[in-house]
């Protein structure tokens, strides 16, 4: 148990969230709508990991294994699907379908997921592989992107 730095309540799971550019350890309720950096004890804050804005008016294309990426990021944060659903105001069942890639999330949801889980779900022309950790490459490996220009 740990005290939430925002509301002071005791929470079983605390998340490190960005609140006005300050890292706070907060309960799931207070983490709602905030940018989550990591779950308790594993501060993996990556400084300078600012999202690259790509507003070219082109339709974003989801990465091939977006469901897997979402699930992996969520599990890394030890965040139950229910908690994530609450945070971004979506139905748990819907998120479940998204993770199983049985449905394509609308762009608004994609953005929310990217922000909350610090991942990239939109295919980018430039090598945007930073969000993936330990992905077992069936296709091209990370090394093929890094180093070659
Ligand atoms: Zn709180």
Structure description:
- This protein has 149 residues and is an alpha+beta fold.
- The chain has two domains: 2-39, no CATH class; 66-133, 434 Repressor (Amino-terminal Domain) (Orthogonal Bundle).
- Helix content is 30%, strand content 13%.
- It is built from six helices and five strands.
- It has helices spanning 28-31, 66-76, 81-87, 92-99, 107-117, 142-145; strands at 2-3, 10-11, 15-19, 22-26, 35-39.
- The protein has a three-stranded antiparallel sheet. A two-stranded antiparallel ribbon has the order 1-2.
- A hairpin with a 2-residue loop joins strand 3 (15-19) and strand 4.
- The longest helix is centred in the middle third of the chain and has 11 residues, at 66-76.
- The radius of gyration is 16 Å and the shape is elongated.
- The relative contact order is 0.14.
- Mean pLDDT is 79; it is low at 41-57 and 131-138.
- The site of zinc ion has 8 residues, from helix 1.
Mean pLDDT: 79
Assigned CATH class of the largest domain? Mainly Alpha
> Are there runs of 5+ residues with pLDDT below 50, and where?
41-57, 131-138
Number of helical segments with 4 or more residues = 6
Structural class: alpha+beta
Let me know the CATH homologous superfamily of the largest domain: lambda repressor-like DNA-binding domains
Please state how the strands of the largest beta sheet are arranged side by side: 4-3-5
Cα gyration radius (Å): 16 Å
- The separation of the N and C termini measures 48 Å
Percent of residues in β-strands:
5-15%
So, CATH architecture of the largest domain?
Orthogonal Bundle
**Helix coverage percent of residues?**
25-40%
In this structure, how is the largest beta sheet organized? 3 strands, antiparallel
Which molecules are bound in this entry? zinc ion
The dominant shape is: elongated
Order of helices and strands: EEEEHEHHHHH
How many E-type strands? 5
CATH topology of the largest domain: 434 Repressor (Amino-terminal Domain)
């Amino acid at each position: 148990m740990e005290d939430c730095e925002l509301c002071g309540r005791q929470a079983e799971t605390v998340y490190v969230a960005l609140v006005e550019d300050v890292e706070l350890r907060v309960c799931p309720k207070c983490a709602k709508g905030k940018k989550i950096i990591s779950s308790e004890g594993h501060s993996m804050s990556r400084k300078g990991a600012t999202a690259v804005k790509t507003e070219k008016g082109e339709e974003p294309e989801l990465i091939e294994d977006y469901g897997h990426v979402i699930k992996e990021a969520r599990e890394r944060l030890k965040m139950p699907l229910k908690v994530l659903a609450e945070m971004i105001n979506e139905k748990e069942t819907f998120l479940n379908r998204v993770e199983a890639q049985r449905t394509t999330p609308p762009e608004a949801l994609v953005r929310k997921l990217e922000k909350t889980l610090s991942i990239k779900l939109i295919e980018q022309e430039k090598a945007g592989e930073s969000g993936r950790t330990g992905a077992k490459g069936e296709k091209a490996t990370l090394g093929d992107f890094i180093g070659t220009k």
